[in-house]
TrEMBL record:
GO biological process: methylation; RNA processing
MF terms in GO: RNA binding; RNA methyltransferase activity
Ranges that cross the membrane: none
InterPro entries the record matches: Alpha/beta_knot_MTases, rRNA_MeTrfase_TrmH, SpoU_MeTrfase, tRNA_m1G_MTases_N
Pfam family, one: SpoU_methylase
Residue ranges of domain tRNA/rRNA methyltransferase SpoU type in the record: 27-170
Key words of the record: Methyltransferase, Transferase
Protein's name in the database: RNA methyltransferase
Signal sequence interval, chain numbering: none
């Protein structure tokens, strides 16, 4: 059979314990007032896929356990560390005090296109994704260390939040793991 699809048993899936013990990708996701429970579940699933360190659920963003989050998370709420915080700005300030660079994912003045963004080796970063209608709150954008914009060439210039998270996490994950491989290679 040509290009036989892999069986689940062949995918080297981590158990919940193996996931929790695994070295995480130094990325934190902050969800700023996300309305859709399905989007929240999808974000958990993407965070699981890339071994993301933590998710902050802020403002009106719902928290597990909830059947509509579970429906799309497929168990990722059990693996990915998460915390609820009422105030997104306070989470930003706390992370910045811990030397984490915080970037809002938004269309704004002074933004850097995602394809041009350079992840600094050894730097922990947090990315803020905003409300499906209003985006990231202006006060959060203003307090961020930078703004990353997803290049879009069509007529809408709007992506679903879950799609945006997938695009950004994949891009950052690939840049960070490439940097780590290059550093490891140069150390030998």
């Amino acid at each position: 059979m040509k290009n036989r699809k892999s069986k689940n048993s062949e995918l080297d899936r981590k158990s919940v314990e193996e996931f929790k013990e695994a070295e995480k990708t130094p990325i934190i996701v902050i969800l700023d007032n996300i309305r859709s429970l399905n989007n929240i579940g999808s974000v958990f699933r993407s965070a699981d896929a890339f071994l993301i360190e933590k998710i902050y659920l802020c403002g009106i963003t719902a928290q597990p356990p909830h059947k509509d989050i579970q429906k799309t998370a497929l168990g990722a709420t059990e693996t990915v560390a998460w915390e609820y915080a009422e105030n997104t700005l306070e989470v930003l300030e706390k992370l910045q005090q811990e030397k984490t660079k915080v970037f809002s994912i938004e269309q704004a003045e002074g933004s850097v296109m995602l394809n041009d963004f350079k992840a600094q080796p050894g730097e922990k970063i947090a990315v803020v994704f905003g409300n499906e209608v209003k985006g990231v709150q202006q006060k959060v954008v203003s307090a961020s260390d930078g703004i990353i914009e997803i290049p879009q060439l069509g007529s809408k210039h709007s992506l679903n939040i879950a799609v945006s998270v997938g695009v950004v996490l994949w891009d950052l994950f690939s840049k960070i793991t490439t940097n780590n491989r290059e550093q490891s290679y140069m150390a030998h």
